[in-house]
Structures are given as C-alpha cells and as structure tokens.
Amino acid sequence: PIACIEKVTLGISILLSLVVFLLLVSKILPPTSLVIPLIAKYLLFTFVMNFLSVLVTVVNLNFNFRSPRTHTMPNWMRVVFLEYLPVILRMKRPKKTRLRWMMDMHGSSPPCEHLPTADALYQQQQQQQQQQQQQQQLMDGKTPPIDATSLAFNNIAGQLSPAAVRATEAIEFIAEHLKCEDEYVQIREDWKYVAMTIDRLQLYLFSLGTTVGTLYIFLQAPHLFEAVDQDKLIALQNNKTST
C-alpha cells in the first residue's frame, strides 16, 4: 500500500540489483562488440521503469501525508482525482465518518447549528437580569421603564439559569470542536484517496508499459519463430571439427 514507506526501500533495492546485473553483463561482452544483447536491453528497460516508479512513489507519498495545515487541495485536483479517475479506474471510496455522513444527508445541518449562539445566550442573560430588576422595582412600588429592548427580550422564549447557560456553551464548544476535527480528518482522507488514485493509475500504466516493452524487446530476437534442426547443426559442427 501507498502508506507503507518500505515501498521506496524495495524500489531502491531492485535498482541496485539491476545495476549489479548490468555490470555482470558488461563484463561478459567483448570490448569491441557493437551490438547490445537483448538481455542488456531488457535490464536497461527494467532499470528505467523502476527508476520512474521510485520517483512516482516519492511524489505519491508526499500526497499521502499532506494535511489541511500544510496544503490546500485545488479544485481541479479534487475534480480529477476524486470524481473522474476513481470512476474510470473502478475504485470505491472508503466509507465516511459518522458525523460527516450525518452532515451530508439531505436537509441536515451540523449539530452545532441547532444550539443557541453566544449572542442568543447573552440576550437571555440580559433578559433575565432585566426581569429580576423589574420584579425588584415592582416590589419597591416603582414602575419599571418599558423600552424596545425589554420588549424584544420578553419575546424570547425560554429561560435559562446561569448553570444551564454554561452547560449550553460547553456543549456548543464540544460540538464545534467535533465538527472541526471531523473536517480535518475528512480533508486528510481526501489527500490519502488522491494518493490511492495515483497509485492505482501508476499500477495500470506501469503494468501496460512493462508488458509492451518486454514483448517488443523479446520479439526482436532472431530465429525466435523459426524451427531449428538440431541434428543438422550437430552434424555441421562435427564436420568442422573433423576437418
């Protein structure tokens, strides 16, 4: 998988092995040879493909470990790697988290939107204080002044005690924190899915390239589809030896 860092180590180990094989082949060839043998061509082709694979893997690891704090995903990348390419490559997106799934439902909204805001809580506190002052003035025999603000506060339904206000603020903070944390996780999952898409595309392209290149190199071999008479060759070799 792309999250496994040992993928780069494996690619570099294969590169070193190919270099050793190329050195052995170069020592076997005569110094004045003008023709490159097929095995050397195949090793060179495999070396180039493996080198490109290591480069793409390094870039892919960069995408896999990105986060919202360091990078912002462009819109074209979101459209290409999250919408179109997964459909073409027949990939299925992993399931979303429960909170994000609830937010994406039709007609639903984030949990914190159902809670009263800080302004509403402040207005409720002011309303409660003014009502207490009005009750105290009525008990003292004074007529409390009536203004537009007090009338607006009186229209707010429900009364909350200071303990309930603090509890509501704590619930609002927790809900907002969970929402931000879920959005952070979802953006990281988007980057990981982009890396998965590139990795799947790399698999298809390199498999196709390796197959076509291997067939092209081996089809260049002379007498590949010609029948060879072994008895005739042995007799010819014996005649040369006897003479």
Describe the protein.
There is one protein chain. Among the domains are: 66 residues; 79 residues. The chain is 70% helix and 0% strand. About 10% of the residues have low confidence.
Q: How does the SSE layout of this entry go?
A:
Blueprint: H1 6-28, H2 38-64, H3 75-88, H4 98-104, H5 118-139, H6 148-154, H7 162-218, H8 230-242
Helix pairs in contact: 1-2, 2-7, 3-7
Summarize, please:
This protein has 243 residues and is an all-alpha fold. Among the domains are: 1-66; 71-90 and 165-223.
Strand elements, count: 0
* Poorly predicted spans: 105-118, 148-158
Mean pLDDT equals 75
**Oligomeric state, counting identical vs distinct chains:** single chain
GO biological process, one term: monoatomic ion transport
Domain Neurotransmitter-gated ion-channel transmembrane: 5-218
Pfam families: Neur_chan_memb
Transmembrane segments: 12-30, 42-63, 201-219
Task: Looking at this protein, list some descriptive labels.
mainly alpha, 70% helix, membrane, 243 residues, 0% strand, Neuro_actylchol_rec, transmembrane helix
